[in-house]
Structures are given as structure tokens and as C-alpha cells.
Amino acid sequence: MENPYQSPGAVVEDREKPSSSLGDVASGQKLVIYAILLYFLAAVLRTVVGPIAALAFLACLVMSWVGIYKIARGLEYPMWWRIVLLVLMLVPLVGLIELLVLSSKATSRLRKAGYSVGLLGARDY
Fold first, then answer.
1. Where would I find the H helices in 1-125?
2. What is the pLDDT of residue 17?
3. pLDDT greater than 90 at residue 2
4. At residue 81, does pLDDT exceed 80?
């Protein structure tokens, strides 16, 4: 005979366990988003300050390269495609579009895994 006072049992699904590839995607996406914001800030600084803003562009480039590599590794892109993405980052408008596309792909992958993704990347990471 069953216990009538026992609470009902519910099947609760756990979200996908964070793996190293999801960690790479989440941290890479944050770096890419910060690089995009720094890119626009550096453009404004270039008009105000002048050539000193080149340091901000250099920091933006380094952040975006690390972020692109992490996202591409987390999404399991082949090595030759990662290198192509890093080289394409050197072309000004193509690099910005590339950052936006990779950030979008990272967002869809993180949402599929159950993460809450906002304007500045994954919140639960």
C-alpha cells in the first residue's frame, strides 16, 4: 500500500552539464562582446584623443582574437577554419561582421545548452 502522505515525485530534467567546450564558448563570447564595445569606444577616442587611441584598437584586436579562437574551439571548428577566422579579423568591416556572427552562433549554442544569455553574454557562466 502506498503512503498517502508522500509528496508526489516529479521528473526534473537537469540542464546539460557544463563542459569545457561550453566554457570556451561562454568565455569567448564575453571576450568578443567586450571587444565589440571596445572597438566602438576606440573609434570615438580616435576622434577625441587622436593616435593614442591605437592602443585601444590593439587591445580590441587581441581580445577579439582570443575570443574568436575560444568560440571556434568550443564550437569544434577545424583548425584551418580557426586560422581563417583569425586572419579575417584583420579586415576592418569584415572583422566586425565576423564578431557579430560568431557571437550569434555562440548565443544559440549556449541557449540550446540551457544557459540564460543576455546582452553581455551568458549569465550563469
1. 20-48, 54-74, 79-88, 92-112
2. 52
3. no
4. yes
